[in-house]
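Proteins fold reproducibly. Look at a concrete instance:
___
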Amino acid sequence: MTQTTETATDAAEPAEEREPSASRRRSRIHRAWFVVAVTFVTIVGAAAFRSLPGLLIDPLHTEFGWSRGTIGAAVSVNLALYGLTAPFAAALMDRFGIRRVVAIALVVISLGAGLTVWMTAAWQLMLCWGLLVGLGSGSMALAFAATVTNRWFTERKGLVSGILTAASASGQLVFLPLLSWIVTDHGWRPAAVTVALAAFAVVPFVWLLLRDHPADVGQKPYGATEFVPKPPPVTGAAVRAVRVLLSAVRTGPFWLLAGTFAICGASTNGLIQTHFVPAAHDHGMPVTAAASLLAVIGVFDVVGTIASGWFTDRFEPRRLLAVYYALRGTSLMFLPMLLAPTVHPPMVFFIVFYGLDWVATVPPTLALCREQYGEDSAIVFGWVLASHQIGAALVAFLGGVARDTFGSYDVMWYSSGALCAMAALMALIIRRRKPGPGAVPGAAGGAPGGASASALV
């Protein structure tokens, strides 16, 4: 009997030891990290459509005779809808779920990109690339990454949102070498089909592997101590977004933040991403080489975004914004002298420098929104992001008009440099707000718990 008991005890002890070990193994890879992986791949894979507009300007101009201003207008519609849809995207996800909204958005993007193959008139480019792709991409803007972060994480929010934000920005550029090769060797139509297939291929990936909430798989959010039930569908979020906007526009800091971020969009997505490749090609640089330089910007953007978040936790965000815009404006002033038929060291230096600054403005802008608007800061930032895309849309159009009118893009480089200098001054005059009932403690240096860029919705 004693032997049996001892044997049973001996047999039980390894089981007791194995159970914590198994638990530790399960806890090492929380389901939330798989969701992050799916989100990351989705953002990068779907970002192919964001890479193509700059590569289409010259081929469409050559084949159809459309002015660069007309083509730029279609790109501007795309960029504007991307920004204007973003404040409402989170409301759609709260109402219908992340999977449904993202899957439908990808299908719309695929449809819009695919239909361009058969277009014969400029209005069709406006409809397909401007309207359909603009609405689809806007539904997957930063709201997608932010919603996933907020639902699946209570810890590591800053890290996760930084990774996904970098994926959103860099994913727009990493496809450029491949697509530029396709456009150069096979024409723009196969490139458009590639974009459509890339977006559509992600749909089953999202539908099968992505989940709306940890409760769907019976888990707690990463870092949570208690189980969080799945909230019911939320209605009225869109009305609140409009109400917050009407309140924010009555304050001076909103216009300064929106103005600086509009210049940010104008000097990045609107100018460099849309017009750098055709501008470099005007100087004799092969399209594939120019596109590869933009891809390098995407690589260094990851480093710059993470570093900017670290700086924002430690330094005054107004001064950081002023430095970022001043350096960006200075670099744009030198760009006309750097464009040449071949890639040379000064151009490589510009690309690396500009890449580090590409979306470095996001963390300090978020911090200032939190400082100024407290609980409404997430929605306010959504509208500030809309101003970013409106600025990008305006310069995407004006850049094409300038090229048609003056025969070069030089006026756009110099004008954007001057705008960046203005943004630096605007950032410095944003008044500091003392912590009050609506302010978030420590907002200027990052949200408590490292929320950082996760508080977008």
The chain is about 75% helix and 0% strand. The two ends are 64 Å apart (CA to CA).
